[in-house]
Design a protein that fits this description.
Elements: H1 2-12, E1 30-31, E2 37-38, H2 40-64, H3 78-94, H4 99-118, H5 125-148, H6 155-174
Helix pairs in contact: 2-3, 2-5, 3-4, 4-5
């Protein structure tokens, strides 16, 4: 799996280019589990979060399968992690309309930056695995928050609509009945 990531990541994560998953379907929306469509911008962010989480999981899995002891130094490919961190930063910046997801992405980005600051060789394998987990967990959380986010009107508009309906109902109730 990590070999596949090494093959596709340089092409997908070139500087100045962001992932574009919105064009995958026939239309610009993605269907959620509850059957509602997800707007294209949010779908693209969601798919980017999935890509990043799977990428960091592949790095962690590769680290675990290398047959060395947990105490040996961890020598990750920092170029790959840098490319993923650039994509993560772009995803975080694009998530401005979704504060909960942006917060989770900000946490993932800070942990990825910490991982980069300590790579290569400053961490043992167990600590490196834990640090990768602290990147993966908020990425999964951001993806879940983007899936759960609804395209509903802002809270003020909802209250205005309820207020308008209530006032119409009250006017209708207080109007004299025609006999």
């Amino acid at each position: 799996m990590i070999e596949c990531l090494y093959a596709i990541a340089p092409a997908l994560c070139r500087p100045g280019r962001s992932l574009d998953f919105a064009t995958v379907g026939e239309d610009a929306s993605t269907s959620r589990q509850d059957g509602h469509a997800m707007p294209a911008e949010r779908a693209q962010l969601h798919h980017t979060c999935i890509f990043l989480a799977v990428s960091f999981r592949a790095i962690r899995q590769d680290l675990e399968t290398r047959g060395a002891t947990p105490e040996t130094p961890c020598w990750l490919d920092t170029r790959l992690i840098e490319m993923l961190a650039v994509e993560l930063r772009g995803c975080r910046d694009a998530a401005g309309a979704y504060p909960a997801a942006r917060e989770a992405l900000d946490i993932a980005l800070s942990h990825a930056a910490l991982l980069l600051a300590q790579c290569p060789g400053a961490l043992d394998r167990e600590r490196c695995r834990r640090q990768l987990e602290t990147v993966i967990s908020p990425l999964q959380d951001a993806g879940a928050r983007l899936t759960a986010a609804r395209s509903s009107p802002p809270q003020a508009n909802r209250w205005q609509a309820v207020s308008h309906r209530l006032s119409r109902w009250l006017r209708h109730r207080s109007a004299p009945a025609d006999e």
